[in-house]
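User: Fold this; tokens only.

Assistant: Input:
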Amino acid sequence: IVSEQRRSNPYRTIDLRRRFNMVSHNDDDETTSLEDLQLVVVFGRPGAGKTTIADAAIEKLGGSSALGLDLDVCIPQWMKDNFSNGIYPTLEQRQEFMKDSCRYVQDQINQTTCTIILVSFSFVNVDLRQGFRKAFPNSKWALVDTTEEEAELRIQQRKGHFYTGAPKSEEEEEEDKQQKQQAEEDPQQDSTSSKADKAEDKDDDGDDNDNSEWLFAPVTFEHTILPGTASIEENAQRVVDILV
């Protein structure tokens, strides 16, 4: 893991910002030639194990050449408190959060000497993905593909995790039971299918509705699948392979 204190290089700052189309430039300003910086986003449902996989991939890469950024650090405390009570952010709140998160990632890129950036975050909503992909159009994405039930179980096993949600009502418990029975009867069902898919099926290039719950939206753009049933080691290697 790279130390928080990093050597600042003004030429690198200019070069990296150009590579991600963060600022306008002209050829006369070119001052140095660096290797292409690679940015991979590891995303998926809360509890899927995204950051664990990203950290394992960094270890495989040797650590000093890769920087891991967990966007959970950008979540304000009031939003975490709301999560713990089952209150989800509005569309406007999510958009503001993603602007702050993109600024955070850009600042870290500007300060680091690493050539590989691994970002981990849920990115459950279409608008969040749109905002990040617009800011970093050259990024590659890897989905930790778990069912909602698997992710919820992992969340419950973590002590002190803010994403616990409010206790489910009897109706929700019954709905979950019926969905589990349907999944057992249809083993070919896509692992990304769940009650989240009942949300309006918006394309990632379209407009997102102002969700009353933070439901995991279907992913329609190009991405690599990291099977939720695979080991951390196997999925970490898949992330490394994206960079080769």
